[in-house]
Design goal:
The complex is a heterotrimer of chains A (about 240), B (about 120) and C (about 260). Chain A has helices spanning about 45-50, 70-75, 90-100, 110-115, 130-145, 160-175, 190, 210-220, 225-230, 235-240, and strands at about 5-15, 20-30, 35, 60-65, 75-80, 150-155, 180-185, 195-200, 205-210. Chain A is α/β, with parallel strands linked by helices and about 240 residues long. The two termini of chain C are about 25 Å apart. Chains A and C meet through helix 2 and helix 3 of A and helix 1 and helix 3 of C.
C-alpha cells in the first residue's frame, strides 16, 4: 500500500448513536514517537482499540503496516491496554512464556532483565503484587517486544511523577527504533519532550497533526500550552442550543 | 550538569545549545567520544530523533564529527572551539548589556561597572 | 497456533477441575470403605454424611462444568481477558475452537468422573479384578458381538455431538448478548431461549421422523444409521452456530 505504518481513511466509529470517531484521516510513518492527545472522551482509546482489533470500525478504512487488521497486524502490534487483563493465578514468568509462545518478536531474556531492573521478581504471583507492580509487569511485556507499532493507552495516568519519568525512560530505552510508538495521554507536559509528533483529538476528529518542534517554532509555545488554549473553550460548546 | 528544557522554543535547538555548552566547557573534552544518541536521549529524557537533530546541528557547526566506528568525536580543532566559545561569550555579554539597559545603564556605564567589579 | 491456545486453555481447565475431580474420586473411595468395609471406621451418621458430601460434590461438579464453559467464553473472550486473547496473532475461529475443544473435554471429564466414582464405591474385590480369566472372558464376549463396539462408538459420538451442540448454543447466545451495548447478560439468556426454541422447531419440522425415515430406510434397517443421522442432525446446526459466533467475534467485537 505505502510506507505508512498507520493509515486511516474516513474512519468512523459509533457506540449506538453516539459517535466516538467521526471521519478520521491519519497517516503515521515508521520510526516515530507520536502523542495521541485529547481530553477524556475525545476518542483516543477508541482509535487505539480499532488499531489493535478490539473494536471494529462502523465505516472507513484502516491499515497497519499496509495490511487490514488481522493476525498479521496483531503479530507486529504491541498493545498496552488501559486496564489489567491477567488471570491472577499466573506468575509474571507464566505471562512471559505465553508471550514467547505467541509473539516471535518477544525477547524473553530482555523481559527478565527489565523485570530485575524494575525490582520485580519474575517468579512472583500476580495475586501478591501491588497495582503499581502489575503495571510494571504489563509494561515489561509490551516493551520487551521488537514490535513495528507500540500502542500505549494512557501509560502514565494514575501514577506519581517519579514513576511517570521512570515509565517514559523505560519506553525510550526499549522501543524498537524502526518501529513507531503511539502514546495516548491527557498529561501532555510530561510526555511532550519524548514526542516527535502530536495528534490533537477533539470530539472524534483530528484537530491538529504536526511535529512538536514545528508547533513550538510556529506558535512560540509548548504543545501543552497550545493544547490548553484549544481545549479551554470545551465546556462552553456543549452548552449551546 | 542537568538538561533544562524551556517551553517556548524547539527542543532540538535547546539540546544543541546545551551540548555546545558542554563541549566548550570541557564536559566532553576535545577528541573524546560523545555518548550515543540513545544514551543522550535517555539521559535527557527526550525522543532520540530530536537528539539526533541536535547532534546533526553540532556536526554542521563543526563541533563534532561522525566517525564510522566510534560514533561521534568532539572536534580537536581549537580554532573552531575558540570561535564557538567566542560566540557563546558574545551571547552572554549581550544578555548582560540588555539587562543593564533595562535597569537604566547605558553601554559605557555598564562596561565601566563591569570593569570595576572584575578588578 | 491452535495447539498453543489449547495448551493455555487446558492449563486453565486443569486448575479449575483437578481439585473437584480428585475430591469426587477420593470421596468415592472413602465411601467404599465406610459403607462396605468389614470394620466400621466411622459411625453410621458420619458415613451418611460422607455419602451426602459425595453427592453434593458431584452436583457441584456439573454446575462448575456449565459455569466453566460460560465464563471461559464470556470473561475470556468477551471480557477483560479478551484484551489479551484478541490481540494475539490468531484468527477468531482458532480462539473459539480452542475454547470449544477444552469445554468438550471438561464435560467429558466430568462425565467420566461421574461414572467412575460410583464404580469406585462398589465393593469390588481387588484380587478378583486382577484375574486374567475375568478380562479374557470380557474380551471374548466382546469379540463375539463386534457390532456392539461400533454401536458403543456411535453412542459416544452422539454424546459428543450433544455436548458440542449445547456449547455452540451457549457460545452463540453469549455472542448475541455481546452485540448489544446494555443488558448483555439478559440478552444472552433471551438468545439462549430463542436458540433453544429454534432448535426444537428445527427438529420438529426439518429433522422430523417423517423426513428422516426414508434416509434411515436407505442406510440400514438397524441402529447404526439412526445414530449417525442423529449425529449429523446435531453437528450441522452446531457448525452453523459456531460459524455465526466466529463471524460476530471477527466483525462485531466491541470491547469497551
Amino acid at each position: 500500500m505505502s510506507d505508512y505504518l498507520i493509515e486511516c481513511r474516513g474512519l468512523y466509529k459509533s457506540y449506538g448513536l453516539r459517535p466516538a470517531l467521526s471521519g478520521v484521516d491519519l497517516e503515521v510513518g515508521p520510526g516515530r514517537i507520536v502523542g495521541l492527545l485529547g481530553p477524556n472522551g475525545s476518542g483516543k482509546t477508541t482509535l487505539i482499540k480499532l488499531l489493535c482489533g478490539l473494536l471494529q470500525p462502523t465505516r472507513g478504512e484502516l491499515a497497519v503496516d499496509g495490511s487490514a487488521i488481522g493476525p498479521y497486524t496483531k503479530s507486529v502490534v504491541s498493545y498496552l491496554p488501559d486496564r489489567m487483563y491477567f488471570a491472577d493465578w499466573m506468575k509474571a514468568s507464566d505471562l512471559f512464556d505465553l508471550f514467547r509462545d505467541f509473539y516471535s518478536d518477544f525477547q524473553y531474556e530482555k523481559a527478565i532483565d527489565m523485570c530485575r531492573s524494575l525490582g520485580v521478581d519474575p517468579g512472583d504471583r500476580l495475586k501478591s503484587m501491588s497495582k503499581g507492580t502489575k503495571e510494571k509487569v504489563q509494561l515489561v511485556l509490551v516493551m520487551a517486544r521488537n514490535a513495528r507499532l507500540y500502542l500505549l493507552d494512557e501509560p502514565i495516568a494514575g501514577v506519581d511523577p517519579a514513576a511517570r519519568d521512570f515509565i517514559l525512560r523505560t519506553i525510550l530505552t526499549n522501543y524498537n527504533e524502526e518501529g513507531t510508538v503511539l502514546i495516548s495521554t491527557h498529561l501532555i507536559s510530561d510526555v511532550e519532550k519524548v514526542l516527535d509528533e502530536a495528534i490533537f483529538l477533539k470530539e472524534g476528529k483530528i484537530m491538529l497533526h504536526a511535529t512538536v518542534d514545528d508547533i513550538r517554532e510556529r506558535e512560540g509555545k509548548s504543545v501543552d500550552a497550545l493544547f490548553r488554549e484549544i481545549f479551554r473553550a470545551m465546556p462552553m460548546e456543549g452548552g449551546g442550543f | 550538569m542537568d538538561w533544562r528544557l524551556e517551553d517556548n522554543r524547539p527542543i532540538w535547538l535547546q539540546l544543541s545549545q546545551q551540548l555546545t555548552r558542554r563541549i566548550i566547557t570541557g564536559v566532553y573534552p576535545p577528541g573524546s567520544r560523545l555518548p550515543s544518541v540513545r544514551e543522550l536521549a535517555a539521559e535527557a529524557g527526550v525522543n532520540p530523533n530530536t537528539m539526533q537533530r541536535a547532534l546533526a546541528q553540532l556536526e554542521q557547526d563543526g563541533l563534532a564529527k561522525a566517525d564510522r566506528t566510534a560514533g561521534r568525536l568532539v572536534t580537536q580543532d581549537t580554532a573552531v572551539l575558540d570561535r564557538v566559545r567566542r560566540t557563546e561569550a558574545q551571547g552572554l555579554i549581550h544578555q548582560y548589556l540588555d539587562a543593564m539597559a533595562a535597569l537604566g545603564y547605558d553601554r559605557d556605564r555598564a562596561a565601566s561597572l563591569l570593569k570595576e567589579e572584575a578588578l | 497456533m491452535l495447539l498453543k491456545l489449547l495448551k493455555y486453555d487446558f492449563r486453565a481447565m486443569w486448575k479449575q477441575f483437578s481439585l473437584i475431580w480428585g475430591a469426587a474420586l477420593v470421596l468415592a473411595l472413602i465411601n467404599r470403605f465406610t459403607l462396605y468395609g468389614r470394620i466400621h471406621l466411622v459411625g453410621e451418621n458420619a458415613s451418611n454424611m460422607i455419602v451426602l458430601t459425595f453427592g453434593s460434590v458431584l452436583a457441584a461438579m456439573f454446575v462448575i462444568a456449565i459455569m466453566f464453559v460460560v465464563r471461559r467464553f464470556s470473561k475470556g473472550l468477551l471480557g477483560d481477558e479478551g484484551y489479551l486473547m484478541h490481540t494475539l496473532p490468531v484468527h477468531p475461529w482458532q480462539l473459539v475452537l480452542s475454547k470449544l475443544i477444552c469445554g468438550v473435554v471438561a464435560w467429558v471429564g466430568c462425565g467420566v468422573v461421574a461414572v467412575l466414582s460410583p464404580a469406585f464405591m462398589l465393593p469390588w474385590n481387588l484380587p478378583d479384578l486382577l484375574q486374567i480369566s475375568l478380562w479374557s472372558d470380557i474380551f471374548r464376549g466382546i469379540m463375539k458381538h463386534p457390532d456392539m463396539l461400533i454401536l458403543m462408538a456411535e453412542f459416544c459420538l452422539v454424546i459428543l455431538s450433544v455436548i458440542v451442540l449445547l456449547i455452540a448454543v451457549i457460545y452463540l447466545a453469549l455472542s448475541i448478548g455481546h452485540m448489544v451495548s446494555r443488558h448483555r447478560n439478559l440478552v444472552g439468556v433471551a438468545a439462549f431461549i430463542g436458540l433453544y426454541i429454534l432448535l426444537v422447531n428445527l427438529y420438529d419440522r426439518v429433522f422430523s421422523y417423517k423426513v428422516v425415515r426414508p434416509l434411515l430406510d436407505m442406510t440400514t434397517a438397524n441402529a447404526y444409521g439412526s445414530m449417525l443421522t442423529a449425529v449429523a442432525a446435531m453437528l450441522i446446526p452446531a457448525a452453523a452456530f459456531l460459524a455465526v459466533t466466529c463471524w460476530i467475534l471477527e466483525h462485531k467485537l466491541n470491547l469497551e
